[in-house]
Structure formats: C-alpha cells, structure tokens
C-alpha cells in the first residue's frame, strides 16, 4: 500500500516537472522570433522582439534613407523617403512572429521552422502623392501644337511636338509597392499627341503665310490711304489651331490699327467729353466732340482678305465714337451761377504759401456731378516733394511741427465753408485740435494724408464746379451750380473754457506757438429754400471741442 503511494507520488512529481518544463519552454518560445526567420533578407531568428527591432533598425538604416530614383524619358528625379511619407513599420512586421502558445505543433515549428518575412511599411499617401507631383512639375511638358509665327516681315513654321506627363497615381503605386527594395522606379508616363499635323502646317504656310508676307498692303480708310510693309503688320498676324487640327489665320486688330494710327495719326479721332469751365468768371458748357474710329470686326475681315488677294488692298470703314459725357448731359447738370464762396487770409510764410498755391491749383476746376461724392484727399493725393510741396507747420499731438504740405488745411477749411454754404451733405470732416483765429469758430476742417479727410456728397440735384484761386495773401473757393439753399450759420457761445499752459522748449525742432484757450462751441446750419425765404426747412448741428493751444517759447537758436 505504501509502495503504491510512493510510485504514484514519484509519477506525479515527474509529470509536474515535465509540465513545468513544457510551460517554461512555451513562455520562452513566445518571447522570441522563430528560428531561421528572415525579414527582407535580414536574419532575426531566435531573437527577442526588442533585439530583432534593434537589428532591423541598424541594418535597414541605410536602406530606408536612400532616395528613390524616378526615371522619366527626359531626366531622373529623386524622392526622399521621409518627404514622400515612406516609413518602415517594424512593429507591424514583428507583431505576428512571437506570442505565447501551448500547441506542440506550433512550438515545434517555432523551434525548427521560420521563414522569410516581408518588411511591412507605412505610407502617407498624401505626402507621397505630393512628392510625385513635384517630380511631375519638374519633367512634364505640354503638347505643342504646330503653328506659324510672323515677325520681322517673315513667317516661321513651328513643328508640332507631343506632350508628356507623369501619371501621378500609378507612379506613386509603383514607388509604394517596391520600397525600400526597389531604388529605381520607372515613372508611368501619359503621352498626348498633337492635333496639328506636319501636312497642315505645310498647307497653312503655302496658302496663307507665304502670300501674306509677299509684299506691302494698302489700307484705305475714308480719304486716307496707308501703305504697310510686311515688317509693320507681321506682329499682328498669327496662325493657331482651331481645336480640330486646322490652322486658322488671325489678326490682332487693335494692334494693327495702332500701327495704322502711328503711320497716319489723323486717321482716327479720340472723342472728347463735354465739361463745364469758367470763362471770364462765368460757367460755360464746353461741348463734346464726337470721335472717329475703325469698325474692328469689319477691319479684321478686310485686312485678312487683303493679305491673299491680288490687289492687296483693304478698305476699312470708319465709324463715329460717341463721348461718354454728351453736351446735353453737361447742360443738364445746371451749372449756371455761383452758389457759395468763401475766403480766408494767411500770413507771410513762403513754404506754407507755396503749399496752398499747389493745392488750390489742383482743386481748381474740379467738377462734382449730381449725387457724386467728393473727397479732398482723393483729389489732392499725397503731399510729396515730387509734387512741389515743402515743409511748413502742421499740428501733431497738440504741437506745431514741420511737415510736407503744411498749409493745405487752410485750403480744406476754405473748401469746407464753401461746401457748408452750398448746402451739400457733409459726410466727414475733422476740426483742428486747437482753435486758429484766422478760421471761423466751429466751421473749419483740417486734412492729412491718408486718414484725415474732408468728404461730402453733392445732393443739390445739380452739378458743382469748384473755382479755387490764391490772390496775394487770400485763398478763395467758390462753388458754381444751381442755387438750391440759402444757408444761415448761427454760432453759440464758447463753453468749458480751458486756459493754455506755458512751455519752454530747447529742442532745435521747436516751433513757437501763441496761446489760445480751449473751448467747446456749437454751430447750427439753417437751410431755407433759395429765393423764397420763410421758415427753415432743416437744421444740422456741428459740435466742436478745441484743446488749448499752449504758449510755446523756443530757446534753441535753430528752432522755429
């Protein structure tokens, strides 16, 4: 009985040892790559996944970094694998080569088997496509259709040539399927054959190009006859495909007509718009002038026909060209009388006076049509030395400084008051930061390029002609149109008066200032129907806040 138990115990222990050994072997094998395993020719059999990864990274490092050479018929272009989104995926490659199992057949195969495994890769398709497109941009060339060019009085035949382009999707597939083992990939190309045959080029040369260049062409326009040599009209000719493989003659009519105008300047006449100007102080309509030009479609047909005709003569029809602004339109603007005028005076300061004269000269003669918006900056543009403007005092942050165009604000204020009394709709204006005694309180407007502007809309229903001129130390701006309103300006008392400070400035850029208090003031613009009088029709309010102008004394010898 005891002997039987001992035998059973020994058998149980033996089986337990054998089972433990088997299990331990299964664990060991599950943590290693099968024997005799290769990945892309690299031996990793019997290694742990970690050791296999290190081995593959080391051996593949050079292989996966080499550029892929894309061969095209014209040249070879390289793609960097990283730029092209190509990457060796070692985790996916090794994922199925290890793992725990108790199946004796699988364990035996693990010990004795193993096989060649492919290297798995990851492909960023968007990046690969972009890389192949870069190759295509470098090597693609479009189909060249045959044509005939004309230059220097000669015709030159251009032979057709097929186009070639990389088929991006198919070429990207080849790169992805062969990497990293295939370092050279022959690009898949798409060839486009031209539609224009050599025979068609020969026909067009014989039937049109040669006759067209065979001698001069006479152009008859009205009573004028012009003779053009082939060298003169050749640049305007062309022969290009019509889409069916046939070359058709073409002519750049505007270009050829420009040549004709250069040879005979009086053959055409540019139309002149009607306008309104002051004549002896009175507004007068300057009539429009009808122009004369070519009938371009008919001229194109006549010129093409003449190039292969026996007489080589093209008769071109001249047609009237109407002006944009007719005399009737200008008369309808109703610019017939002075509707407002305003004058301001200025002291002697040559640079400032120079700037006022330039701005007044630029403004003079401006015509604002009914409903049109006026911008003083838009009319004067930047005040630059190239236009003749000089440096003169301007206000900046409450102080006088030197700046190009100083004084133009006086032109603005004078214009603003003419607009005020004309009754136009004032959209935008900016008073000076402190009060200047030569201007009416609350009725003035500074200007600065490009942001501080004077803008108003001519809502009188008639045109407005601006007359601006400088006489001695005065500038006058008058508006001419049809008087609609009698305007009365009513100024309220000064409010919130603030006294100026006294400042001593030793800087060489200092500009002296006379003291003026700061204050608030309100001006009402009262509208009455012109010539009728009676009760006001409407009133608009202008509220102005002036800072005090400090008393600035300059002590530097170079200041002022």
Question: Can you give a write-up of this model?
Answer:
- The chain is an alpha+beta fold and 560 residues long.
- Among the domains are: 209-327, Roll (Ubiquitin-like (UB roll)), CATH 3.10.20; 333-554, no CATH class.
- The chain is 30% helix and 31% strand.
- A four-stranded antiparallel beta sheet has the order 22-30-29-23.
- The radius of gyration is 46 Å and the shape is flat.
- Mean pLDDT is 87; it is low at 16-20, 22-30 and 105-109.
Features:
4-stranded antiparallel beta sheet; 560 residues; alpha+beta; 36 strands; flat; Ubiquitin-like (UB roll)
Distance between the termini: 133 Å
**In what order do the strands lie side by side in the largest sheet?**
22-30-29-23
What kind of oligomer do you see?
A: single chain
Mean pLDDT: 87
- What structural category arises from helix and sheet content? alpha+beta
Quick one: how many beta strands?
Answer: 36
Low-confidence stretches: 16-20, 22-30, 105-109
Largest sheet, in brief, is: 4 strands, antiparallel
- Tell me what portion of residues adopts beta-strand conformation: 25-35%
Globally, the shape reads flat
Question: Whole-number radius of gyration?
Answer: 46 Å
Helicity, as a percent range: 25-40%
Number of helices: 14
């Amino acid at each position: 009985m005891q002997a039987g138990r001992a035998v059973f115990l020994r058998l149980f222990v033996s089986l337990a040892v054998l089972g433990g050994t088997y299990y331990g072997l299964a664990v060991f094998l599950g943590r290693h790559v099968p024997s005799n395993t290769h990945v892309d020719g690299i031996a990793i059999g019997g290694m742990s996944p970690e050791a296999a990864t290190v081995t593959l990274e080391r051996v593949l490092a050079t292989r996966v970094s080499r550029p892929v050479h894309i061969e095209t018929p014209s040249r070879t272009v390289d793609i960097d694998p990283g730029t092209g989104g190509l990457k060796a995926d070692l985790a996916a490659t090794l994922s199925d080569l290890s793992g725990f199992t108790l199946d004796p057949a699988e364990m035996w195969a693990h010990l004795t088997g193993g096989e060649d495994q492919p290297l798995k890769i990851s492909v960023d398709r968007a990046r690969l496509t972009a890389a192949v497109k870069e190759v295509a941009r470098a090597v693609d060339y479009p189909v060249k259709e045959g044509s005939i060019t004309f230059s220097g009085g000669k015709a030159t035949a251009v032979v057709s040539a097929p186009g070639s382009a990389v088929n991006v999707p198919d070429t990207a597939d080849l790169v992805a399927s062969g990497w990293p083992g295939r370092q050279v990939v022959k690009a898949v190309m798409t060839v486009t054959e031209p539609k224009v045959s050599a025979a068609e080029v020969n026909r067009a040369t014989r039937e049109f190009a040669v006759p067209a260049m065979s001698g001069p062409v006479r152009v008859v326009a009205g009573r004028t006859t012009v003779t053009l040599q082939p060298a003169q009209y050749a640049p305007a000719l062309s022969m290009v495909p019509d889409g069916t493989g046939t070359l058709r003659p073409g002519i750049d009519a505007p270009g050829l007509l420009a040549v004709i105008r250069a040879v005979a300047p009086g053959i055409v006449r540019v139309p002149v718009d009607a306008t309104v100007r002051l004549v002896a102080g009175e507004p007068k309509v300057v009539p429009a002038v009808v122009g004369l030009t070519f009938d371009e479609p008919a001229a194109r047909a006549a010129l093409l026909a003449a190039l292969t005709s026996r007489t080589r003569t093209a008769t071109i029809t001249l047609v009237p060209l109407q002006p944009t602004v007719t005399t009737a339109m200008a008369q309808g603007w109703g610019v017939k009388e002075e509707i407002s005028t305003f004058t301001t005076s200025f002291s002697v300061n040559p640079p400032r006076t120079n700037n006022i004269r330039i701005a007044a000269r630029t403004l003079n003669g401006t015509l604002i049509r009914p409903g049109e918006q006026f911008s003083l900056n838009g009319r004067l543009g930047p005040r630059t030395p190239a236009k003749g403007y000089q440096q003169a005092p301007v206000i900046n942050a409450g102080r006088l400084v030197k700046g190009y165009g100083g004084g133009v604000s006086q032109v603005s204020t004078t214009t603003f008051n003419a607009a005020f009394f004309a009754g136009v709709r004032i959209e935008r204006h900016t008073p000076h930061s402190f009060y200047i005694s030569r201007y009416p309180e609350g009725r003035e407007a500074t200007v600065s390029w490009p942001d501080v502007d004077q803008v108003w809309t001519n809502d009188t229903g008639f045109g407005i002609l601006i007359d601006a001129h400088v006489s001695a130390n005065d500038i006058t701006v008058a508006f001419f149109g049809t008087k609609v309103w009698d305007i009365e300006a009513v100024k309220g008392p000064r409010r919130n008066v603030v006294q100026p400070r006294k400042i001593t400035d030793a800087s060489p850029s200092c500009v002296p200032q006379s003291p003026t208090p700061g204050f608030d003031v309100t001006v009402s613009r009262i509208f009455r129907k012109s010539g009728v009088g009676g009760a006001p029709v409407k009133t608009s309010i202008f509220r102005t806040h002036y800072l005090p102008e400090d008393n600035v004394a300059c002590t530097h010898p170079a200041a002022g």
